[in-house]
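[Discussion] Sanity-checking designs against the backbone

I'm trying to build intuition for which residues belong where. Below is a structure token string of 185 positions. I'd appreciate it if someone posts a full sequence so I can compare it with mine line by line.
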């Protein structure tokens, strides 16, 4: 007896529309170029031939936020650059995700002063935090694969906007950066 007869009718594939849409969306992400400091060099190296992001479907780094759906905030964010980062995020179409790359983008890093925002989550809602100073390209690939897993498992018609609004409201209700005393207080 052949394999086809044993399996019954192999011509049918049973899955949900959410699963197919999640797989399609998670495997074709286009990051926007948002290199702000030294972590940007590692982000550029990730797109080079040694690490080859093309095998994951992430090879197209877009210079226009209108064509991107992932923002990789790589490096420290100054208060002068914060409105520009937010403007780029607001220009991206929904659904959109953010990876905070490096210690400076995630927490302000070693720059605990008035000029640097103490975390990109004060400006935009962050989905993945990538530690390190600077993080290696392998770590960025791992963060991107984790984001791919999150995207493929999320509901198609989920309440992402409500969640993003709640996260942004919590960030706005947090202690403002100018009032933070840090470790020196």
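Best answer:
Here's mine. Compare freely.
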């Amino acid at each position: 007896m052949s394999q086809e007869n044993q399996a019954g009718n192999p011509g049918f594939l049973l899955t949900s529309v959410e699963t197919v849409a999640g797989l399609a969306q998670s495997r074709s992400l286009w990051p926007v170029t948002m290199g702000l400091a030294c972590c940007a060099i590692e982000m550029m190296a990730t797109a080079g031939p040694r690490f080859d992001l093309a095998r994951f479907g992430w090879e197209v780094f877009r210079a226009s936020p209108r064509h991107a759906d992932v923002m990789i905030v790589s490096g420290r964010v100054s208060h002068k650059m914060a409105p520009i980062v937010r403007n780029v995020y607001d220009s991206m179409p929904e659904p959109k995700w953010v990876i905070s790359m490096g210690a400076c983008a995630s927490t302000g890093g070693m720059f605990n002063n008035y000029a640097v925002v103490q975390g990109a989550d004060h400006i935009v809602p962050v989905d993945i935090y990538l530690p390190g100073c600077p993080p290696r390209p392998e770590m960025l690939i791992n963060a991107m694969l984790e984001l791919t897993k999150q995207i493929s498992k999320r509901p198609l018609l989920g309440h992402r906007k409500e969640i993003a609004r709640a996260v942004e409201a919590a960030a706005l209700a947090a202690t403002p950066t100018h009032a933070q005393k840090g470790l020196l207080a």
